């Protein structure tokens, strides 16, 4: 646990600084009220009304997020394997090849179904 | 750092049926990825059927070469008598369901398109189909094989997810009534995810109690660990919720009618047969192996659940006007009958074996009948797809007597009329329950059977003694459905008239009970 | 501690609290000053590359330019648009800044030194999973991006946030995979031990010849290092992957609505600190850490005492200069190219390299079954190539079809007399009011007012 205390110290320091900066920002500058200044910036046109709750966004991003989870979990399995490679030996290698091949099958499927294409 | 971690021993030969199914599923994904569109279906159909048949042959071969008496794969999987029997059952039922899936017109052209949109129209005219159905079915079947054979709770959870996730997806792929299908998929997914969370939480608590997720070790801990009963009871309750949800036992039955109705009918057949069999196998293993020593605590609750399930299933089925919903409620009621067998656990090995063999027989009998019934549902069609409303079935016996007779046979088997498979199934389970002293439960079972018989007979009456509507539905029977119907009729009649071989088989499989 | 290779995991966790606070404050101050210096250094260097002077008014060589910028930022009016989700909007800068600092807590600056009589490593702390902490902090930083875009409630911000997060997570995978080979070689995730492993290479025995192994993983694991060098540009949204701030299309991307004041300064700060972090990781994992490179290391005392901190910061400046160099040389890529490169090139290459390296490593274990491993390796290579070729032919076919289609469209346009051979928009678009195409009845055209499509 002692290993984590210094991280906590740095976290308090950084969070304190960031929170301080954000909270004093309104008091350090001038205040000149202007209706247009407080609109969302859209290069000068009337701001597009945003739907309540954020509205929809392209499905592409969700596919990317799901693929990210798949591969991130693959990485999480790869790390301990890499660290313990010498102890696991050949069995570990064969199992990891099988695992990566299985993930790659799904990857090939996504690739072929244009899941990785952006337009 | 320099020490070597010993490689686990894995009995690949014993796990071969599962490995074959999973391997074929992965090949199926590769086919999806690399085969041109016009070839996919032609590759998938034989691949899937051969895989299931091959896995079945391996299962038979294993059963003949001797059933292992210890768990395999470092204690993660138990390939024992009941597991092999259930594997065989699931594989045959899945084979039959795939025959049903093979017939055209059950699945959507483009699942991602908004129902009724231009994209959907275009996908339809292009003749696109989701051949992904086949690998998904194989993954689900693989999960079904692992679920009842899992010997520790983590392997069981993995199996639960592998079984459920493809099914969630398959539910949303019906070609007709898209919105209903999508709704079914979302409902099943949300509730299923919720029940998985219950299962996992229960696993965590039981691990906290016993210090192991291994079923046998949990049972050992029941006698030795003291002072943590709260952990144990909450854990058992959570685990029970997760498992009973998959069976569709009351009060966790709410998803079943909606999902069975909205799914493509062949998938409903697969779920109603394969998933139920797998889930009962897992339930039995958890409650008999891991919690056998806690019998006095969970039996009263299981009594309540069984009674509630039978009554809810039978009574709510009466009010249904939709054939698929009615069959769903019938499936709930049958889950209740099967639960009677679960509580028939005694201290006597012989008695337990006879209860187990009764359950196994019931599962086989019910599985075939339900696949057959859903196969008949696919054949009666209106302009907008299958005719689900009961009024559309009026007078079917006069227009297509053979279909009506076959459907009546399945309904009679559901009702448990003698000379059908359902009779011996119910009889064996009730007998085991009486032997275990659960006579009141059997009385409730018989009463709800009588209530259920009412609505089964009502459909038969409707089919044979009403006049057919002028614009009645047409009956289309593709080749695969023919075969499914024939197999189901054969099974229902043979198991009803001459049940002894299968009873013997079930008895042999149940003889040594579950390995520990 | 091993006197020749430096501290290992056992040397950590013994610091008194006051020493941890001193170290943490030191890291904090170094990063703050580093940002000020970094902004100046980047502007100055890129100016020289473009034959300009860059900032030269504030202080000697314009050194105080970024201080002046920072002060000015603090004295600007703080604008918070009316439509924003206030809590999320205010939280985002904090969420993006804090993890950027935290990643530096496991960065090794040097060996054991004596601070006020306490023997301690020149590193805030080390964990058995130190590199994982760096990756985790990078992931939490993504929350800041997403929340900033989401909370701003404006189309530019939300699109910028989505794009940016999609890009960062995509490159994070390639980045995480490029570390795997390092862990295979080092057998640990602890940063100090990875540095220690790069202290001196062994020797390769090739046909009786003793060839000294290079000790830096950048050389022995070159593919991993190259991939990491690319992903660190993508991960920090730097040129050529600075799509989120593509000024031409998205104004400022996810921080469009943080138009001035110290809230914007947080984003700026986090961006530069992230650049330092990925540079520090590059140094630690691939470039020998704080250890002096060869000509200096001949001197006995180079890797002892406080000197290594100097080597570390020199390396940091050089890696940062690489970032600036890339910015001066390369144009921005297109978004689809960016994603395609990350997903279709970096990830498969990376996985293939990891498997290849693991196979080679398994071959070196004396008692292993060589024939089996070689067969396995051959199957991997052949299978990978087969799939690659299949893809390649398919992609080629698709590309040709696309080119043919474009050519066809071009031909069609050329044939139109009024187009004069150039692709100009037709004059009868529906929103040109009143002008109807010849031969078309006025009732057939539904007028669409401008701005609605």
TrEMBL record, chain A:
Gene3D superfamilies: NADH:ubiquinone/plastoquinone oxidoreductase, chain 3 (1.20.58.1610)
Record family assignment: Belongs to the complex I subunit 3 family.
Protein name: NADH-quinone oxidoreductase subunit A
Species this protein is from: Microtetraspora malaysiensis
Reaction it catalyzes: a quinone + NADH + 5 H(+)(in) = a quinol + NAD(+) + 4 H(+)(out)
Primary role: NDH-1 shuttles electrons from NADH, via FMN and iron-sulfur (Fe-S) centers, to quinones in the respiratory chain. The immediate electron acceptor for the enzyme in this species is believed to be a menaquinone. Couples the redox reaction to proton translocation (for every two electrons transferred, four hydrogen ions are translocated across the cytoplasmic membrane), and thus conserves the redox energy in a proton gradient.
Subunit structure: NDH-1 is composed of 14 different subunits. Subunits NuoA, H, J, K, L, M, N constitute the membrane sector of the complex.
EC number: 7.1.1.-
Membrane topology: Multi-pass membrane protein
Membrane-spanning parts: 6-27, 61-82, 88-110
Pfam families (alphabetical): Oxidored_q4
One MF term in the entry's GO annotations: NADH dehydrogenase (quinone) (non-electrogenic) activity
Main location: membrane
Top EC category: translocase
Compartment(s) of residence: Cell membrane; Membrane
Keywords: Cell membrane, Membrane, NAD, Oxidoreductase, Quinone, Translocase, Transmembrane, Transmembrane helix, Transport
């Amino acid at each position: 646990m002692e290993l984590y205390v210094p991280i906590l110290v740095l976290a308090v320091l950084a969070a304190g600084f960031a929170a301080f900066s954000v909270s004093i920002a309104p008091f350090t500058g001038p205040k000149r009220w202007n209706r247009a200044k407080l609109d969302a910036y859209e290069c000068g046109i009337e701001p597009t009304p945003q739907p309540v709750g954020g509205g929809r966004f392209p499905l592409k991003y969700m596919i990317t997020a799901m693929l990210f989870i798949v591969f991130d979990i693959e990485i999480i399995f790869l790390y301990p394997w890499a660290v313990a490679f010498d102890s696991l030996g050949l069995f570990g290698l064969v199992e990891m090849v099988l695992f990566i091949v299985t993930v790659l099958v799904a990857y090939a499927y996504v690739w072929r179904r244009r899941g990785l294409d952006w337009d | 750092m320099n020490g070597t971690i010993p490689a686990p021993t894995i009995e690949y030969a014993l796990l071969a049926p599962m490995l074959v199914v999973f391997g074929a599923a992965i090949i199926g994904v590769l086919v999806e990825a690399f085969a041109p569109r016009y070839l996919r279906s032609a590759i998938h159909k034989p691949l899937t059927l051969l895989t299931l048949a091959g896995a079945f042959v391996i299962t038979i071969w294993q059963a003949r070469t001797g059933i292992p008496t210890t768990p395999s794969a470092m204690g993660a999987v138990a390939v024992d008598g009941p597991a092999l029997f259930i594997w065989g059952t699931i594989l045959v039922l899945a084979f039959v369901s795939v025959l049903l899936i093979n017939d055209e017109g059950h699945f959507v052209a483009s699942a991602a398109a908004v129902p009724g949109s231009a994209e959907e129209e275009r996908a339809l005219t292009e003749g696109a189909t989701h051949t992904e159905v086949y690998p998904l079915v194989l993954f689900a079947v693989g999960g079904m094989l692992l679920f009842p054979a899992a010997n520790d709770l983590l392997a069981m959870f993995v199996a639960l997810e592998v079984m459920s996730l493809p099914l969630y997806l398959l539910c949303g792929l019906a070609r007709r009534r898209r919105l209903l299908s999508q709704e079914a998929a979302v409902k099943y997914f949300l509730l299923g995810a919720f029940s998985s969370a219950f299962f996992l939480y229960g696993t965590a608590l039981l691990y906290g109690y016993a210090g192991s997720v291994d079923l046998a070790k949990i049972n050992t801990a029941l006698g030795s660990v003291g002072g943590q009963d709260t952990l144990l009871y909450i854990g058992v309750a959570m685990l029970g919720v997760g498992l009973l949800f998959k069976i569709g036992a009351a009060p966790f039955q709410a998803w079943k009618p909606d999902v069975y109705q909205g799914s493509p009918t062949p998938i409903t057949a697969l779920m109603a047969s394969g998933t139920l069999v797998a889930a009962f196998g897992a339930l039995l293993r958890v409650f008999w192996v891991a919690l056998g020593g806690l019998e006095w605590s969970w039996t009263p609750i299981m009594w309540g659940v069984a009674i509630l399930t039978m009554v809810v299933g039978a009574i709510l089925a009466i009010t249904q006007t939709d054939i698929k919903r009615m069959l769903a409620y019938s499936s709930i009621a049958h889950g209740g009958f099967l639960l009677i067998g679960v509580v028939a656990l005694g201290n006597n090995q012989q008695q337990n074996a006879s209860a187990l063999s009764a359950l196994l027989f019931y599962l086989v009998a019910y599985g075939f009948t339900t696949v057959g019934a859903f196969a008949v549902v696919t054949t009666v069609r209106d302009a907008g797809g299958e005719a689900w409303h009961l009024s559309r079935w009026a007078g079917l016996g006069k227009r297509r007597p053979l279909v009506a007779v076959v459907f009546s046979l399945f309904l009679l088997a559901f009702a448990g009329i003698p000379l059908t498979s359902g009779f011996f199934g119910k009889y064996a389970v009730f007998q085991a329950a009486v032997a275990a002293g659960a006579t009141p439960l059997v009385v409730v079972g018989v009463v709800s059977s009588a209530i259920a018989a009412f609505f089964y007979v009502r459909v038969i009456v409707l089919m044979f003694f009403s006049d057919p509507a002028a614009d009645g539905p047409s009956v289309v029977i593709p080749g695969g459905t023919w075969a499914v119907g024939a197999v189901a009729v054969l099974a229902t009649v043979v198991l009803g008239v001459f049940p002894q071989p299968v009873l013997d088989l079930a008895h042999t499989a149940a003889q040594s009970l579950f390995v520990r | 501690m091993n006197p020749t290779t430096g501290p290992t995991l056992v040397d950590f966790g013994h610091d008194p609290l006051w020493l941890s606070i001193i170290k943490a404050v030191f890291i904090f101050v170094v990063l703050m000053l580093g940002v000020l210096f970094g902004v100046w250094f980047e502007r100055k260097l890129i100016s020289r590359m473009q034959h300009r002077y860059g900032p030269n008014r504030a202080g000697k060589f314009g050194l105080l330019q970024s201080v002046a910028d920072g002060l000015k930022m603090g004295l600007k009016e703080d604008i918070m648009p009316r439509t924003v989700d206030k809590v999320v909007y205010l939280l985002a800068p904090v969420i993006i800044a804090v993890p950027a600092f935290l990643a530096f807590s496991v960065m090794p600056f040097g060996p054991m030194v004596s601070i006020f009589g306490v023997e301690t490593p020149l590193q805030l702390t080390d964990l058995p999973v130190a590199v994982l902490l760096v990756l985790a902090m990078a992931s939490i930083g993504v929350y800041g991006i997403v929340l900033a875009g989401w909370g701003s409630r404006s189309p530019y911000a939300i699109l910028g946030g989505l794009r940016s997060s999609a890009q960062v997570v995509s490159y994070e995978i390639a980045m995480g995979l490029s570390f795997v080979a390092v862990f295979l070689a080092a057998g640990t995730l602890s940063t100090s031990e990875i540095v220690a492993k790069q202290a001196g290479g062994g020797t390769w025995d090739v046909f009786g010849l003793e060839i000294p192994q290079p000790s830096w993983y950048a050389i022995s694991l070159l593919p991993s290092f190259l991939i990491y060098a690319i992903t660190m540009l993508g991960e920090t949204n730097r040129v050529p992957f600075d799509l989120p701030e593509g000024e031409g299309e998205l104004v400022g991307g996810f921080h469009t609505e943080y138009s001035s004041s110290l809230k914007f300064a947080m984003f700026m700060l986090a961006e530069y600190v992230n650049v330092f972090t990925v540079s520090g990781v590059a140094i630690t994992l691939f470039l020998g850490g704080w250890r002096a490179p060869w000509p200096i290391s001949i001197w006995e005392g180079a890797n002892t005492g406080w000197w290594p901190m100097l080597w570390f910061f020199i390396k940091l400046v050089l890696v940062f200069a690489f970032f600036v160099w890339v910015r001066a040389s390369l144009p921005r890529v297109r978004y689809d190219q960016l994603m395609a490169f990350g997903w279709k090139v970096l990830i498969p290459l990376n996985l293939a390299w990891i498997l290849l390296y693991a196979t080679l490593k398994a071959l070196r274990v004396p008692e292993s079954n060589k024939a089996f491993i070689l067969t396995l390796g051959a199957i991997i290579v052949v299978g990978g190539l087969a799939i690659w070729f299949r893809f390649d032919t398919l992609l080629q076919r698709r590309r040709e079809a696309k080119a043919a289609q474009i050519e066809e469209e071009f031909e069609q346009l050329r044939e139109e007399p009024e187009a004069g051979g150039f692709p100009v928009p037709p004059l009868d678009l529906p929103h040109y009011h009143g002008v109807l195409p010849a031969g078309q009845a006025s009732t057939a055209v539904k007028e669409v007012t401008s701005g609605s499509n």
